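Notes for week 9. Today we move from apo structures to complexes. The key idea is that a small molecule is not decoration. When we ask for a structure prediction with 1-deoxy-D-xylulose-5-phosphate present, the ligand SMILES becomes part of the input, just like the chain. The input block below holds both the sequence and the ligand string. Read it once before you look at the output, and try to guess where the molecule might sit.
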Amino acid sequence: MTKLSVNINKIATLRNARGGNMPNVLEAAKRIESFGANGITVHPRPDERHITYQDVRDLAPSLTTEFNIEGNPNQKFIDLVLNNKPTQVTLVPDAVDAITSNAGWDTIKHQDYLRKIVDIFKAEGIRTSIFVDPDLEMIKGAKQTGVDRIELYTEAFAQNYQINPTEAIQPYVDCANLAQSLTLGINAGHDLSLENISYFKTCIPFLDEVSIGHALISEALYLGLETVVKRYLKALK
Ligand SMILES: CC(=O)[C@@H](O)[C@H](O)COP(=O)(O)O
Ligand SMILES: NCC(=O)COP(=O)(O)O
């Protein structure tokens, strides 16, 4: 089974549009858990435009499933993660002003830095993951950092899936096979949707976790959160 971690950034985006507390991010997370999701993902950004640091502090003691915090490990982010002890931290090399994540780490160029950061979190018993492009050299580099898992950056898959699914998935299958042979856990995320998730899962059945937000929350506008979460869970069995 592949675990579904629901990224709730977009629920916070909606809340922040009016400055009040509707929709309530914590309540939404609890409902998502009650619908069967295996985890909640947040990606606080330095400008706190969606998930705030206070959201992370509110969510951490209340969640009953896996909590995954993603972000660029500046000192403020490191402190936030260490103080809230999620199940997993995912390191993402975002520029401060990035609209959304747009690249994986260069795990060769930044190997020493990543090893240092991974060590900090592992010492506190937090599972670590590094966001990477589907590039075999980046998987090998990730292994050298001592990280537990990689998260495959799936934007290219999602775009190319529309044109040629077989070609779109091939680099991901190759990287997943390599990661598995190196005993790295395998997560995936970015632009996964109800349209492409079944194909991704069928081609990489040993995937550990997907984190899905933008499409899932959009699909929930039409179908409702419960229906959508259950459809993903069925596709990930
Ligand atoms: C790492 C990743 O792909 C997601 O966390 C994505 O970056 C979501 O962030 P936004 O919700 O800010 O687009
Ligand atoms: N790690 C990917 C994630 O959390 C969600 O990305 P997206 O589904 O919002 O593109």
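The chain has a mean pLDDT of 97.
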